[in-house]
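Teaching note: in complex prediction, the entire set of molecules is handled at once rather than each chain in isolation. The prompt given to students was simply: 'Predict the structure of this complex.' The entities are:
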Amino acid sequence: AQSVTQLDSHVSVSEGTPVLLRCNYSSSYSPSLFWYVQHPNKGLQLLLKYTSAATLVKGINGFEAEFKKSETSFHLTKPSAHMSDAAEYFCVVSETGRRALTFGSGTRLQVQP
Amino acid sequence: NAGVTQTPKFRVLKTGQSMTLLCAQDMNHEYMYWYRQDPGMGLRLIHYSVGEGTTAKGEVPDGYNVSRLKKQNFLLGLESAAPSQTSVYFCASSRGPLNQPQHFGDGTRLSIL
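The expected output is the structure of the full assembly:
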């Protein structure tokens, strides 16, 4: 069975400092992993995707994530936060043959000036 | 460059009323999905479609019906609305199965009184 745990429901950083949003997953098979971002009153937008190629995945807006199979983690990072990064972030897992994506419960990122 | 368009954006219903949410995509995607988003729970799949004329149940299908008469449209119906169906509903589409990125609409905020 697949599951996703986002370890922090809220993260607050100062503008210009690094961002780390943590995600652990459980999957019976080789999963596909995604990070999506949701700005207020908007739908989800894909940040990046891992599908068993390079373990370090680069996404849009300077975000990247590293797939660590031994730790079953897929943490999202950004070297320097911008005010426009304030949003909710979802870690998502899918397995071949499953009929649905599994979404984490989300991490709300606040960026302080 | 519309992408995925949902109508209406907001709606208030009384218990027992019926309504239909419309989703339209202009990307010629085969797969379409309906999700609901509730606080602290991420997104949960209601129904999905893998092509024109096909539909299938997701994780939380009870109380909802769907139709995909045209490739570009995916309708979600509530036959007899209940307060437990108060939620934000998102439609998404993708080129292929679950390892493909999904493109989301901006959501429909539905309140059932």
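Point out the following to students. The longest strand of chain B covers residues 87-94. Chain B has a mean pLDDT of 93.
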